[in-house]
From TrEMBL:
Source taxon at top rank: Bacteria
The protein's name in its UniProt record: Gamma carbonic anhydrase family protein
Record InterPro entries: LbH_gamma_CA-like, Transf_Hexapept/Carb_Anhydrase, Trimer_LpxA-like_sf
CDD domains xrefs: LbH_gamma_CA_like (cd04645)
Organism: Alteromonas pelagimontana
Length: 180
């Protein structure tokens, strides 16, 4: 499919043909991506000491880093990175050993740290730092460094979560069609 995929310890990324993976990105090891998702330029995703799962219709934008935490005495299973469906991860984000539900917008430059759980239907503002082991409740905007729960999402913002996913599915289709 692309030079962007690399095996590690016998595990190779699993990417359906409906996905767009930019050749300048690098996906290593135990990574599974759902249908109609996209990984844009300069993304680094290392499923080397644990696994990464990315849902359907999710987009990981330019310069983002996806990583995991290894098993340890404190965390015998370590921490995988799990990203749900219809998620938009903005440019230059860092997601590390956390769980993101469905219909989430992670603003540009946000950092989401180990053990964080983000419920469905959440906006994380640009530049936000989500400290380890926090839980972000469904239906809210979170901003700041460290993050704070700012306010409930408006109906228009909730609707935008699906619109953003739709836009990136159309864009990745354009890129796939352009490769042929």
């Amino acid at each position: 499919m692309t030079d962007a995929l690399q095996a590690f310890k016998g595990k190779y990324p699993s990417v359906p043909s409906s996905c767009y993976i930019d050749d300048s990105s690098r996906l290593i090891g135990d990574i599974e991506i759902g249908e109609n998702s996209s990984v844009w330029p300069m993304v680094a995703a290392r499923g080397d000491v644990n696994y990464i799962r990315i849902g359907v219709r999710t987009n990981i934008q330019d310069g983002t880093v996806l990583h995991v935490s290894r098993p340890s005495d404190d965390l015998p299973e370590g921490l995988p990175l799990i990203i749900g469906d219809d998620v938009t991860v903005g440019h230059k984000c860092m997601l590390h050993g956390c769980i993101l539900g469905n219909r989430i917008l992670v603003g540009m430059g946000a950092i989401v740290m180990d053990g964080v759980v983000v419920e469905d239907d959440v906006f994380i503002g640009a530049g936000t730092l989500v400290p380890p082991n926090k839980r972000l409740e469904s239906g809210y905007l979170y901003v700041g460094n460290p993050m704070v729960k700012k306010r409930p999402l408006k109906e228009s913002e909730l609707a935008f979560l699906a619109v953003s996913a739709d836009n990136y599915v159309r864009l990745k289709n354009d890129y796939l069609n352009n490769k042929q």
